[in-house]
Amino acid sequence: MKVLCFLIxxxxxxxxxxxxxxxxxxxxxLLRPGVYPYKVRSQKEGExxxxxxxxxxxxxxxxxxxxRKRYAFV
Length: 74
Fold this sequence. Notes:
Helix content is 20%, strand content 38%. The chain has helices spanning 2-10, 24-29; strands spanning 34-42, 46-58, 68-73. A three-stranded antiparallel β-sheet has the order 1-2-3, with no helix packed on it.
């Protein structure tokens, strides 16, 4: 949370970082690819709104895998 506040509010630095797949809302968002606003909350530091980009990757038999992976980035 401190890192996000520093990058966004104090320095206004663009960044990309992986978002952990925790919480019901992130897991629910991972069903639909796109860019969504997401509130990161902390009891000590309050809340901050960030943009979360959700991406899917389909393997289609490459490397012997038949699956899709989901990724979330802030």
